[in-house]
Amino acid sequence: VQLVESGGGLVQTGGSLTLSCTYSEESNCMMWFRHTAGEEREGVAAISTTGRNPTYVDSVKGRFTLSQDDAKNTLYLHMNSLKPEDTAMYYCAAASPPCTVVAVPGVFNSWGQGTQVTVS
What we know:
Elements: E1 3-6, E2 9-11, E3 17-23, E4 29-35, E5 42-48, E6 55-56, E7 64-69, E8 74-79, E9 88-95, E10 110-111, E11 115-119
Parallel strand pairs: 2-11
Antiparallel strand pairs: 1-3, 3-8, 4-5, 4-9, 5-6, 7-8, 9-10, 9-11
């Protein structure tokens, strides 16, 4: 599965961004991770084809929303009320087993190149 992210950028605190992840084929699990230097990669939001109910890490609940456009083979991460601590490289990942946001990076066999989000 090939994944291509876009949509990152520089935004002020309280602002919004929407990240896009275009995939070559759908997987049972699609997820957004983020990574900052010196920290472990953190799962942010996940959606599984079984149930289709997105799950989110506590720090983004109420601010971030996942959506998926099957016709465009694109997964979106809508980010609102952004905070400086949201600054990170954001990665889209895909895996065969269904998943929730607590899935560990090792489960994923497909990764995008990442898109940088900076909140000032």
